[in-house]
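Course assignment 3, question 2. Fill in each field.
Student: A.L.
Task: Predict the tertiary structure for the chain below.
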Amino acid sequence: MIIGVPKEVKDQEARVGLLPSGAKALVEAGHRVLVETGAGLGSSLVNEDYRDAGAELIPTAVALWASSDLVVKVKEPQPSEYPFLRPGLTLFTYLHLAPLPDLTDALLNAKVNAIAYETIREPDNSLPLLTPMSEVAGRMAVQVGAQYLEAPMGGRGILLGGVPGVAPANVVILGGGVVGHNAAKMAVGLGAHVTIIEKNLNRLRELDDIYSSQVVTLASNIYTIRESLRHADLVIGAVLIPGASAPRLVRRDMLPIMKKGAVMVDVAIDQGGCFETSHATTHTDPIYFVDGVLHYCVSNMPAAVPHTSTFALNNATFPYLLELANRGIKGSSNAIREGVNTYEGHIVYKAVAESQGKPWKAM
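Answer field:
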């Protein structure tokens, strides 16, 4: 099989879908690996690293996409890449299709077989390819929030951990999954007052055992969320419904009760966001204000730390990529087949179809 690794074109996206070590393993397994010139530079991986691993450097994206059977990326195709889509092409990347009907239509019209990292699911219901970037994003959310709480950045002028004699910031985390847990870990470490709101009581018990008296755990409901927002300095949205649009937990009418200069970081923005006032932003233009509340809704947060993110992502994705290259979609494990979102012109992942009001069929 011919595996292509293009350079990412999304704003400030410097991660790359394949490490030189992965390229070498694929070549040794009998495959050809094509890497667009400069694809790894943002992650401190030079062209020579790929050439030494046995990959072929391709000077243009047009030539790379046209020559590849399977394209492995990090982020969803951008509009400038839609012309490269074609029947029979297999795409392996983060897709987050639920809030992206135009991309879904492009994949369907081109009859691309698209596999989403975020919907690959193991028999134990774990999402192994979503986990590493959720870990990065959860930890980054606290770093970003702490930065934007500073007055020159537009925030309230609050030091997250406070100092002796001055109370720390109140951090409210909506969701107790991988993102929420990693955000809590960072916020507790910095000395903040942390509240985790989660609907799964068993998960709340686990988090209470982990953090003991270091965090407050609350069962999720509209009243609890509203009252917690009233006192929050930093709110982190960390909820997930795999493949589907995120639930809007923070309503527009809740913002006026919040403190002016409070910060909201919506890590769920890839799936449409869990704040009603959220819309996707970029690293170039990351924030905006609604009712005096700062919103940070960058849809590729981990791209800000591309070296860490690329290695963490590839640690998780490569075994699945190798299986896919060796066996194809039909011959691969149930976990990989569960990750297929579009196949031969049809949506085959039900949550995506339901989010967009489109038909779906079983693969």
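Instructor remarks: The first helix runs from residue 20 to 28. The chain has two domains: 2-120+305-356, 131-304.
Grade: pending
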